[in-house]
């Protein structure tokens, strides 16, 4: 190539039209890069890197290095094949110049080497060139280093052969134009996030990001994930427990619409012991947060496979309805990544993939690999079905609750007549005792410190109805009294900030019925006021089980172990009084043992405790009594200890 004078734009017939194109990019950057804000600025880097990723996807590139320079320019260097520099047969100019000056040229013209591209809005490197005050492209190819420089998209030099080399690759350095972008400062954090994702979905490529603006260069990270999206799922679940190893599958599909070109799809799936859902979908390595056809295919196939095999395994009976999609997505971490020769995105910013044929492709892949997994790994499959069961029960319970709440007068704000309120109106210091039975309620009212302790007696026999269903419970007058005493409302109206007492304390007898009522109340709070538990407002009072007496000395025992150790202390010579109910204590005793903040032991309820109660609840409300009693006796006091 002949040397041309520096900084003299190189025009020939072919370039005139290209330059007009680039002028349009500068006039309306919004149409080409989605605006001139920070997001658009960073898109310039992604655009160049996307081209290098394309080389990696073509199997021709293993390393991409991105550098933010001190002057604010960015360099993207890769070891791909290098942008071709020869004269283009149609346009009669160097392909390098064509790629950098013609809109839509990119690497995809001529049906050549490229399978896929995630390139920005299909406008390619030329848009970056147009929006850069200066750009230098250096190509390592055919034994030589070639260079061409541009200003605001105009070629300043010809494609110059500047040296010899035995490697291949492309180095693009550009300075975003301050005439276009009000803020041209690249953010390391934004870029690193994107490159981490790209490295995960482009197996075997090393992406490095360095920031030369801060010495001694603390910002220098490399990403390389041999395991691709399997590593990605492990990374996302790094602090959580998986129920099984990551399930992975990939296929290359030929679909008729594409006339010989192929779609590549891969998925990685893992369920864990948590309830959130994180599914990420990528199209040509670009994250598509609004999903699209690839995500639809994944979701549909997962739900169908789980329903099919759960039914086959007898987990779902003939009379049971199918799990809904949501039932099957709780606790799921999954990634679907497709590479498509002609991706169609909903909008310029590429947040949603539209190609309809992709849905079926992903669906058949997931059906095959995940179905195979469910069939062979039966234990893992069982734990997934069990999770779905829990999700579906919770969904049905909360639906029933919402319906009920809508049609019931539970939002009343008048305080119930049975409430013995405290004089303090400061929730930070006040507490409410929910007490089983009117007689214990009477003792508690007399024994309390009325300044900060309120008492609400619940009539035991009503709550005691053994077969009470939870929706019946909401219809219950006692529970309605509880809701209005707390002041928080319920359902859509629920507002924890209106809680009238900072501590809500359940105080029931230390017997089977007491445990039963406690389970019921815990279940109620868990299903209808979970945030009250999460924020640490719910407690269980712990009355003593025994009074151990020796002449004038008397000691309360709160557990069997305590009773034994006191008995030893008294040399086996003592009187023992067993408390079966709160009513057996006089008001002073009740204050001293169970209500006085100086002496009492409260158990703070956490969500796990309440979840156990919730699971227990269904069993308790079943029709067979003996296992129920046994369960209550063994588990009722099995709550974490906490001194308050
Ligand atoms: C056009 C055709 C080919 C590669 C490229 C462009 C290409 C573009 C960029 C941008 C950054 N790095 C790049 N690397 C390659 C195919 C070349 C061939 O078939 O040899």
Instruction: Give the CATH architecture of the largest domain.
Output: 2-Layer Sandwich
Bound molecules: 3-[3-(1H-pyrrolo[2,3-b]pyridin-5-yl)phenyl]propanoic acid
**Rg, alpha carbons:** 35 Å
Structural class: alpha+beta
Strand content: 15-25%
**Tell me about the biggest sheet?**
9 strands, mixed
Stretches with pLDDT under 50, minimum 5 residues: 1-7, 106-122, 464-468, 620-644
- End-to-end CA span: 84 Å
Total number of strands: 22
Named CATH topology of the largest domain:
Heat Shock Protein 90
As for the number of domains, it is 3
User: What's the shape?
Assistant: elongated
Q: Note the total helix count.
A: 21
Q: Which CATH first-tier class of the largest domain would you pick?
A: Alpha Beta
Average pLDDT, rounded to a whole number, is 84
CATH superfamily of the largest domain: Histidine kinase-like ATPase, C-terminal domain
Instruction: Classify the helix fraction into a percent range.
Output: 25-40%
Question: What would you say this structure looks like, in words?
Answer:
The chain has 644 residues and is of the alpha+beta class. Strands 1, 2, 3, 4, 5, 6, 7, 8 and 9 form a nine-stranded mixed sheet that branches. The chain has a five-stranded mixed sheet with strand order 10-11-14-12-13, sandwiched between helices. A five-stranded mixed sheet has the order 16-15-17-18-22, with helices on both faces. The longest helix is centred in the middle third of the chain and has 29 residues. Bound molecules: 3-[3-(1H-pyrrolo[2,3-b]pyridin-5-yl)phenyl]propanoic acid. 3-[3-(1H-pyrrolo[2,3-b]pyridin-5-yl)phenyl]propanoic acid binds next to α3.
């Amino acid at each position: 190539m002949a040397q041309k004078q520096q900084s003299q734009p190189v025009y020939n017939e072919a370039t005139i039209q290209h330059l007009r194109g680039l002028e349009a990019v500068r006039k309306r950057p919004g149409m080409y890069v989605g605006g001139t804000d920070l997001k658009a600025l960073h898109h310039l880097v992604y655009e160049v890197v996307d081209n290098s990723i394309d080389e990696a996807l073509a199997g021709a590139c293993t390393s991409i290095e991105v550098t933010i320079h001190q002057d604010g320019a960015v360099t993207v260097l890769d070891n791909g094949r290098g942008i071709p520099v020869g004269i283009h047969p149609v346009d009669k100019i160097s392909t390098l110049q064509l790629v950098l000056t013609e809109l839509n040229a990119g690497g995809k013209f001529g049906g050549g080497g490229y399978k896929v591209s995630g390139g920005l809005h299909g406008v390619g490197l030329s848009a970056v060139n147009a929006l850069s005050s200066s750009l230098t492209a250096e190509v390592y190819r055919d034994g030589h280093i070639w260079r061409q420089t541009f200003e605001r998209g105009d070629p300043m030099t010809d494609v110059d052969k500047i040296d010899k080399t035995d490697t291949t690759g492309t180095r693009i350095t550009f300075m975003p134009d301050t005439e276009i972008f009000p803020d041209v400062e690249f953010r390391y954090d934004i870029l690193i996030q994107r490159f981490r994702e790209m490295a995960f979905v482009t197996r075997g490529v090393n992406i490095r990001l360095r920031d030369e603006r801060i010495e001694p260069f603390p910002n220098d990270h490399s990403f390389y994930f041999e395991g691709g999206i399997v590593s990605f799922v492990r990374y996302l679940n790094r602090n959580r427990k998986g129920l099984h190893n990551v399930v992975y599958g990939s296929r290359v599909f030929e679909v008729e619409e594409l006339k010989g070109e192929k779609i590549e799809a891969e998925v990685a799936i893992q369920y864990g012991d948590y309830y959130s859902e994180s599914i990420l979908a990528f199209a040509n390595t670009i994250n598509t947060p609004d999903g699209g056809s690839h995500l639809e295919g994944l979701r549909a196939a997962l739900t169908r496979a789980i329903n099919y095999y759960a039914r086959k395994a007898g987990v779902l009976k003939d009379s049971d309805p199918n799990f809904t999609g949501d039932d099957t997505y709780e606790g799921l971490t999954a990634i679907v990544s497709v590479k498509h020769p002609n991706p169609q995105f909903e909008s310029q910013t590429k947040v949603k993939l539209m190609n309809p044929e992709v849905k079926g492709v992903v669906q058949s892949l997931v059906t095959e690999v995940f179905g195979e997994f469910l069939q062979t790994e039966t234990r893992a499959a069982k734990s997934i079905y069990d999770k779905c069961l829990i999700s579906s029960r919770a969904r049905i319970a909360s639906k029933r609750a919402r319906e009920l709440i809508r049609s019931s007068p539970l939002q009343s704000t008048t305080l119930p007549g049975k409430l013995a309120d405290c004089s303090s109106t400061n929730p930070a210091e006040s507490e409410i005792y929910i007490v089983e039975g009117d007689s214990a309620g009477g003792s508690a009212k007399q024994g309390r410190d009325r300044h900060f302790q309120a008492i609400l007696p619940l009539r035991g026999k009503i709550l005691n109805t053994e077969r009470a269903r939870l929706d019946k419970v909401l219809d219950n007058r006692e529970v309605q009294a509880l809701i209005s005493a707390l002041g928080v409302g319920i359902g859509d109206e629920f507002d924890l900030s209106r809680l009238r007492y900072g501590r809500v304390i359940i105080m029931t007898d230390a017997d089977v019925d007491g445990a039963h009522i406690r389970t019921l109340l815990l279940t109620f709070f868990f299903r209808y006021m979970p945030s009250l538990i999460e924020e640490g407002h719910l407690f269980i009072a712990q009355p003593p089980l025994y009074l151990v007496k020796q002449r004038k000395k008397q000691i309360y025992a709160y557990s069997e172990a305590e009773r034994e150790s006191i008995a030893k202390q008294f040399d086996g010579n003592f009187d023992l009084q067993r408390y079966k109910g709160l009513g057996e204590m006089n008001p002073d005793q009740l204050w001293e043992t169970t209500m006085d903040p100086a002496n009492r032991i409260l158990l703070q309820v956490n969500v796990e405790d309440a979840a156990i109660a919730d699971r227990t609840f269904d069993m308790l409300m079943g029709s067979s009594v003996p296992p129920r009693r046994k369960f209550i006796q063994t588990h009722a006091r099995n709550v974490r200890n906490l001194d308050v």
